[in-house]
Specification:
single chain, alpha/beta, TIM Barrel, 13 helices, 9 strands, 52% helix, globular
């Protein structure tokens, strides 16, 4: 059983939902990334999505694009990101880490070489935005051969055929993009998300995490009531962007702890909320 699967099973047994924050490796500085990862865990995160800086992050809105640009200006590479995860593992061997990024840096190393290096660094899953299921079979096979969960995206426009394709390849969880757009955009329609989750969950056979458009504890709680996990990126990056470096970890901790409380409040059974 993978560390990601074990995490979801533990949370399900507790009647809780997963909080999955996203940060960009190297932002605001490479020296802070590992500390930020530990901060996310201390504030109540269950799985960390760690973004690999990329020059053309097509799925990401301006906020995460700026984070990538800042990290790239500091020379952060995929191999350096793997080193950050290895450093994180020196103190935390339990929290699953998902590497999220784009195909070019992986192709530059080679898929098999990347998979082996990711496993050695302590990564648990990989989400590559521009490896669609139609072209992702070899990638998924290479990840699974190295005990890594290949994670794929689904969207409001995904057809039953596309959902079935993802279901055949994905493990760990499926990332449902709640909006027709880029990260940090538009207003989240929780009712529309709730209408799609049962179909996806039934077909995929793995937990469903929902991201894009989640900006506060109330919305996080609303999503947690219908999904297995809540993924939050742009709002956390904004907090990093707006904070003096000396206060980044403190402010991120406060934000993530608030999101955690919102998720837990929504997931608690009604009778416990009244007691």
């Amino acid at each position: 059983m993978s560390k990601i699967q074990a995490t979801f099973e533990r949370l399900a047994a507790q009647g809780r939902k997963a909080l999955i924050p996203f940060i960009t490796a190297g932002d605001p500085s490479p020296a802070l990334t590992v500390d930020l990862m530990h901060t996310l865990v201390e504030a109540g995160s269950d799985i960390i999505e760690l973004g690999v800086p990329f020059s053309d992050p097509m799925a990401d809105g301006p906020t995460i694009q700026r984070a990538s640009e800042r990290a790239l200006k500091l020379g952060v590479s995929l191999r350096q990101v793997l080193g950050m995860v290895a450093s994180f593992r020196a103190k935390d061997s339990a929290t699953p880490v998902v590497l999220m990024g784009y195909a070019n840096p992986i192709e530059a190393i080679g898929v098999d070489a990347f998979a082996a290096a990711a496993l050695a660094a302590g990564i648990d899953g990989v989400l590559v935005v521009d490896y669609p299921p139609e072209e992702g079979a070899a990638f998924a096979q290479a990840m699974r051969a190295n005990a890594l969960d290949p994670i794929f995206l689904l969207a409001p426009t995904s057809t039953p055929a596309r959902i079935a394709q993802v279901a055949a390849l994905a493990s760990g969880y499926v990332y449902y993009v709640s909006l027709k757009g880029i990260t940090g955009s538009a207003q989240l329609d929780v009712a529309a998300v709730a209408a799609r989750i049962p179909e996806i969950r039934a077909s995929a056979g793995v937990p469903v995490g929902v991201g894009f458009g989640i900006r506060d504890a109330a919305t996080a709680g609303s999503v947690a009531a219908v999904a297995d996990a809540v993924v939050i990126g742009s709002r956390i990056i904004e907090e990093i962007e707006q904070s003096p470096q000396a206060e980044v970890c403190k402010r991120v901790h406060a934000l993530v702890a608030e999101l955690r409380r919102g998720i837990d409040a929504a997931a608690r059974p009604a009778d416990k909320r009244k007691s």
